[in-house]
Specification:
Elements: H1 14-40, H2 53-93
């Protein structure tokens, strides 16, 4: 089977590994942008015009909770994206073998 558990190809050349990490980073970029767009599209106080009492309170709480959840996801994706880019950079610029000797 040459693939690991997350569906990535078995390690190949350094360039192939770095390219795969960069491809994954682009996928994370796309997901990041989509989540940010969804978060920006959440209703605001202006959307509550005419709402009163418990309905307005529940709606506001739900929107706030969803916004916070999406914010956490954006943070996680940013961390993953940074890690993928750093790993790709490391692979591309690696000058010492993994055995410790050049």
């Amino acid at each position: 089977m040459g693939d690991d558990a997350i569906g990535c190809p078995a390690p190949g050349s350094t360039a192939d590994r770095a390219a795969e990490l960069r491809r994954q980073a682009r996928l994370v970029d796309d997901l990041f942008d989509r989540i940010v767009a969804i978060r920006r599209g959440l209703p605001t106080g202006a959307d509550l015009e005419g709402w009163r009492g418990a309905a307005a309170d529940l709606f506001t709480a739900a929107v706030d909770e969803q916004g916070a959840h999406l914010g956490r996801q954006v943070y996680r994706l940013d961390t993953v994206r940074s890690s993928l880019r750093a790993d790709a950079y490391f692979i591309e610029t690696e000058t010492v073998s993994l055995g410790g000797m050049p």
